UniProtKB/TrEMBL annotation:
Pfam families reported in the protein's UniProt record: LptF_LptG
Cross-referenced InterPro entries: LptG (IPR030923), LptG/LptF_permease (IPR005495)
NCBIfam families registered for this protein in UniProt: LptG_lptG
Name recorded for this polypeptide: LPS export ABC transporter permease LptG
Gene (UniProt): lptG
Membrane-topology descriptor: Multi-pass membrane protein
Amino acid sequence: MLTDWFPSRTLAFYLARLFVTRILGVLIMLVLVLQVLDLLSESGAILAHEGNGQAQILHYVTLRTPQLVARFLPYSVLLATLFTFFPLNQNSEVIAMRAAGLSAHQILAPMMATALVVSGVSFTFNELVVTRSTAQLKAWQEAGWGQVPTGPEVRSNVYMTDGTNILAADTMTGAGAAIEMTGVTWYGRDSNGTINTQMRSPRAVYANPGWRMEDVAAFDTATARTQHLPFAVVARALTPRQISITRVDADWLNLFALSRSINTLRANGFRTAELDGKWWHKISGPLAALLMPLLGSVAAFGLARSGQLLIRAVVGMALGFTYFVVDNMALAIGNFGGYPPLIAAWAPFLLFAVVGEAVLIRSEE
């Protein structure tokens, strides 16, 4: 029964091979061009930090490339669909397939199967590679392109409150009692919110209770004097558990870690609609590659000599790019509470799946 959906073995492998080579070619081209453009804007800031050189530029490329691959893989599948179907139609190969009794769905089936494999690879790549590189790149960027923080669960620009007081850190690594902060600033405020004490420290660790700041520069706003202390313990009511839920970034958490963070936030009474939407989008996002052959298939059918082949290719490209616009818009609306998270993540995919299938059935007729 499954073979009824596919053409012959030879033709299926022929179409799949054409599709895969064009996906890789377009992806490599896009990543190279965009990486060069990205380096033009970021290399100056990286090299401006003392001690940075070619090694740091190459390290930036290794961290940035996975993000570019993940972001533009669906676009590559869309363009590869057009680059595959356009010459097949122009050379009358699609006409020959239809004359042999193949339906539009059978012609498209090998490419849909290939796109499904690409979606699976994209999901795995996002979870295992992109999340880690994103976490390191954000921490490095927010540290001013200095030394990259190392350790599990790296976070940057952490901001926490302890009553009216504020504890902020440039970076935070580790989890639980092993949390370590760098670039730490403590703002002691009165009941009116006025800052009366400011303490700065290069490092802070958990002191159970409180957080031990080392080599402290304490500024008293009342006397306008700065005092240097070997250490100071602040935020005694702030626990590692509270810190762990102060900031959750879905971009650098895999699906399972994000699930744990959402459950923790929900148990402590925090709103999780935005993170719920991003959790679902971690699944629906990679499946965008599965839609691209369906949306771009409009370029495959129709007589090349009718003069509308280029128009069909443009329509297929427009459908694909419209999907990405609607997908981002739905996710943004969901973040503001306009849509439930499940609908925000899946509605664009289902909508354009119906649109793509309607176009394909119309082509079949």
